[in-house]
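Incident log entry.

Two folding requests arrived from the same account within the same minute. Monitoring flagged them as a possible duplicate submission, but the sequences differ. Recording both here for audit purposes.

Request one:
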Amino acid sequence: MAKFVLAGKADCPYYAKAELLADYLQKNLPNFRIHKITQHPDNWEKWLQEVCEKNGWNHKSSPIIWRELLDRGGKGLLLGGFNSFLEHAQQYYGITSDMMTEEMLVIANENLQTHIEIEAEEKELKSLINPMHIWINRASAHVCYHLIPLLTNGEIFGLETEVSLHLFDRSCFKELLEGVVMETQDLASPVLRSVSLHTNLDEAFLEADVIILLDDILQDTIPTIEDCIRQVTNQCETYGSLIEKNAKSSAKVIVMGKTFTNLKALMLMAHAPSINPHNIVTIAMLLESEAKAMLGRKMKMHPAGIKNLIVWGNVSGSSYIDLSKTELYRYDSAIWGPPTFFRPLLDVLFDREWMRTEFVVALGSLSSRESHCLGIAPAHVIAAVLKYWYQDSPPGELVSLGVICEGQFGLPEGIVYSMPVKFQNGTWEVLTELVISEKIQEYLQILAYDLTREKQVALGEVEELYPQRRGTQGARSNLMEEDQLQANEPGSSASKEGDALKKEGVVEETDDSVKELHESKSFEDDDDEEEEYNEETTEENVEELTDDNV
């Protein structure tokens, strides 16, 4: 069987003449088959170039005719243009075309109009299929592997909403992403419209409805923490510009990571002004879940029964674990009640020494497991926040979320700060009606100062993050030493995030704890603090930020 492919510009008169001859041959010869392809004149040259590069051909004009060796595709054998096809038909079948030029032009014009109408119909049909486009940045991370099944099971966006997954990463991970794409297709999910991989930066976040930014890869060595901030700022400038250019204005952006997560969200807001700042958030639920798990082990109860634990401050830096509003449901004690009955945690947990010491030390030790983290917990909290965002959070429950600060709780405006929110009607709302004590307010102001300094360094308003801590030894070379002074103080903990930063969990309210935290994060130069700092910061090794998975 002879199968030919005839392709050309929709308005090409020679394509019209070749098409008429091919139709005649197909009608009168039992073993002659023709497949026709028309392209809009604006797209013809690009399409022709791609076809020739794919098959190793050299052809410049319209039409182009080739013969396929199999009935349904296969390697093509180039025949040539209009003259070659006419000669082939005459020599093999003794048939030629006597169409006049005037008729060729009329048919060519009709072909163009028909092509435009068909394209419009196809576009209209495709518009009826409107999947949600979800982009995952750094899709080679382990967390992405566990996140994909959660995004495609229909529980987050509903079984009526189809999703198109776009996996974006550097070109060196292309082979790995190809494997992830095939496994995603193997899920055979009824809501998965498509899955694709992307390595071209210019195409990132195209038509995105949801963007999930996982931790980015920094340079192998960064001399100072200020250099780390500047590099993060440059990355966010690039991604923010792409989001502004390619994503939908209603896109929701979730920022995850191990370094300067709050700052990343803030810089994305600055460089993607068309995106509502309320649609760019960071997730504090991972730290919240870790704290609940430890409390559950201490209280010998299921951690799912621990509600309204609040994480204040910097998601990937200094944060305050607030237990004053925490409630225990289904706690096995002498007092029982209906499912809605709860007991305040601080009325049940009397071991304040454990909260001051073991609890905060355990929070710090979580970092030792992160290098072996397979991403199950981060994937779960991302999926949970997305589900709350689209389907509302459980009534009466608080959710810790890093959001743009607009002066709530007396905090400075213009920083991203983790605070308690609730999700309702597709958006979040800060629970400003919560009453917080003066002691907690002082903690929050100190954490806000750190975030403000990060912002100032990123914007070039100041050169150093903590100039009063430099002492006589100049800039610190190890990012892990930033809060070393606070690591051994009561009421605070040093919790390494990845290999770069720490987070500070204050869990007990005592008369001395506020004073201690003020001393550890004093806004003014203190000779005693400098001396203590200089004694402890003897190591001059440069911290390497490795490509660990989230």
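Request two (distinct sequence, not a duplicate):
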Amino acid sequence: MTHKEQCEKHGEVCVWIVCKHVGSGTADTVVFSENQDALCFECADNFQALTEQNVVAMCEECLKDFTAKLMINSTSFADLKNRIAGIEHLKRKNG
């Protein structure tokens, strides 16, 4: 199920559930799932302990922008693979 909200920057868009580190842009890693959620590796390792206070909704386009910054800041392909996982779920078209 795709949920849409209004983003100040991108208008009406799909939103993802992300950990507060990804949502604030302070994460240096991100892992995506097919369930439209994205967590930093630390939160993904401890996902069972996450509460509503640990997650926020994030515009899909803002999430793509954040991911692009992580990719640009990667020093090598190996570094990129260590920083981003499951990117194919972000690229998937939502109906």
